[in-house]
Amino acid sequence: MDLHILEHRVRVLSVARRGLWLYTHPLVKLLFLPQRCRCKFFSLTETPEDYTIMLDEEGFKELPPSEFMQVADSTWLVLAVVSNGRASSGCQATGVTKIAKSVIAPLAEHHVSVLMLSTYQTDFVLVREKDLPVVIHTLAGEFDIYKEENGESVPVDRDDVSNGFLKAKPAASPTVHPVQSPQNRFCIVTVAPDTLPAIATVLIDVLFYSHSPPKEAGPGSQDLDTFTFFAFSLIEGYISIVMDAETQKRFPSDLLLTSSTEELWRMVRIGGQPLGFDECGIVAQIAEPLATVDISAYYISTFNFDHALV
């Protein structure tokens, strides 16, 4: 297997629910007209607390600063595991399970904080740009590592990034975070890019207009029977949507593509309080035990909490 460091330099931010009105126009542009802003990496996840947005620098230019937006300090790089010349794809795959032991656990042991973004097609590991030397030294023994430059995959020489590498310190005992499991059942779907306009009205309604006047939700304040979660990503032309089964009924069923089993998923939400970006090993704590017993899992990090779908 190969590890590819993609060209995207990603910013991670949170938009408060009460401030979403200010971002509706640029978000619609990013959702439906990415060619207008040359954005190739865009993900929007709605949770009870806020909207988490991950997007490349071209997309980030579209979002005006405001009191409603928090932006993580770091710029993040995107890692993708490639097998037989192509990224793994489809819900038949095992999500983060397949990379838990080879990527996620070693990075946790070397104190590298990661964000995860699982999509219908593949799983992306986001690492801070400043941690790249440690990432390469940690994973070079397991993977051939390539960096994408101008659309070409260029081999990365481990010695080229020796500056700045620090030997791993003894691992501290990881914090044990509380978990919650809402009653919703979720589905992971994709749509063909040329059919996106056909679901535009429903998608806009679900994201921007379906809720009562927004109010800030504190951690754990929402009834877990009615947990709000909707994730949309448009990455290099591939679309992925995660939504609960009730929301799925609002979309034209003939346009949503699912795995052949059409299985539903339950969520485990990690964190009683916002997790922050500096803590390491959160993803590994969830992914490793599941990988050990071969349980498929998809994992989506947001600005405040982490979410595993099993």
In terms of DSSP E residues, the strand content is: 25-35%
Please summarize the sheet with the most strands.
13 strands, mixed
CATH class of the domain at 2-155: Alpha Beta
Could you estimate the helical fraction of the residues in percent? 10-25%
Overall 3D shape: globular
Helical stretch count? 8
H/E order of the elements?
A: EHHEEHEEEHEEHEEEEHEEHEHEE
Q: Tell me the CATH topology of the domain at 2-155.
A: VC0802-like
Number of strands: 17
The CATH H-level superfamily of the domain at 2-155 is VC0802-like
Subcellular location: Cytoplasm, Cytosol
Keywords: Cytoplasm, Phosphoprotein, Ubl conjugation
Family: Belongs to the GATS family.
Domain CASTOR1 N-terminal: 9-68
Describe it.
With 310 residues, the protein is of the alpha+beta class. It has a domain at 2-155: VC0802-like. Helices cover 19% and strands 30% of the residues. It contains 8 helices and 17 strands. The protein has helices at 24-32, 34-37, 57-60, 100-109, 132-139, 200-209, 245-248, 282-292; strands at 2-16, 41-46, 50-56, 69-71, 76-83, 86-87, 114-118, 123-128, 144-149, 152-155, 179-180, 186-189, 230-235, 238-244, 267-270, 298-301, 306-309. The strands form 2 sheets. Strands 1, 2, 3, 4, 5, 6, 7, 8, 9, 10, 12, 13 and 14 form a 13-stranded mixed β-sheet that branches. Strands 11-15-17-16 form a 4-stranded antiparallel β-sheet, covered by helices on one side. α4 (100-109) runs antiparallel to α8 (282-292). The longest helix has 11 residues, at 282-292. It is globular and about 50 Å long. Residues 88-93 have low confidence and may be disordered. Belongs to the GATS family. Residues 177-260 form the Cytosolic arginine sensor for mTORC1 subunit 1/2 ACT-like domain.
